[in-house]
Amino acid sequence: MKFEHQSIPEIVLVKPELFNDHRGYFFEVFQKEKFTQVGIDLKFVQQNQSGSKKGILRGLHYQIRQPQGKLVRVLSGEIYDVAVDIRKSSATFGKWLGLNLDGKDHYQLWIPAGFAHGFLVMSEWAEVMYSTTDYYAPEYERTLLWNDPDIAIDWPINQNFKPVLSQKDLLGNTLRNAEVYG
Fold this sequence. Notes:
The chain is mostly beta strands and 182 residues long. Helices cover 5% and strands 40% of the residues. The strands form three sheets. Strands 1-2-10-7-12-5 form a six-stranded antiparallel β-sheet, with no helix packed on it. A five-stranded antiparallel β-sheet has the order 9-8-11-6-13, with no helix packed on it. It starts with a strand and ends in a 12-residue tail after the last helix.
């Protein structure tokens, strides 16, 4: 596995070593010792999976209590994955990182607790799986507005395209009005 720290250093792109032969492929999705060696000490408690059509935008979600670190990967299709730093004491507070993940290269994105997370489906269909470091707690779930002008995420959409969002995601808070981490 290769671990590439991103422009927000706590976010890490994980590139597995793929073993291909005439039967197909094999790779390690997670190996605790390798993650620990690069400073990512994890204990996963829950694994989630979603399937979505092209144009669906999910997020930007976080839990104000029981914050979740997430290891995100795409099983099939392609997404534009986004994380926003909402740790008030962080030098990168309010900054975002976005990159494409797909089911072909098998890359994963480690997003630690303290970030809002969301994604836009780029392919006709995408299946996304992510492991979390704490349990889902709907009473603590919060939503950051996907198109908050103060954050200015450069989603890969044109002016005529309107992403499909849930009611919860349409009513997300701006960063100025959101509950954030200290």
